[in-house]
Design brief:
By secondary structure, this protein is α+β, with helices and mostly antiparallel strands. The protein is built from 2 helices and 4 strands, in the order ββββαα. It has one domain. Bound molecules: zinc ion.
């Protein structure tokens, strides 16, 4: 079984719901929630995602 790991801190991601995917298709990074939170905040701040999309990401 494929084990998901955070591309930043290498922590195992046990649940697909507990990850943040950042990137543009060919260069996707999977991050744990701890590492992904600043990414989501960044995207929101730069208005790359809407508040609605932001809410969908946990
Ligand atoms: Zn991480």
């Amino acid at each position: 079984m494929h084990i998901l790991k955070c591309d930043n801190c290498r922590k195992e991601i046990k649940n697909r719901e507990q990850r943040v995917v950042a990137g543009l298709g060919w260069n996707e990074k999977e991050l744990c929630l701890d590492c992904g939170r600043p990414v989501k905040n960044f995207l929101l701040k730069k208005k790359l995602i809407s508040a609605e999309e932001f809410a969908k990401l946990k």
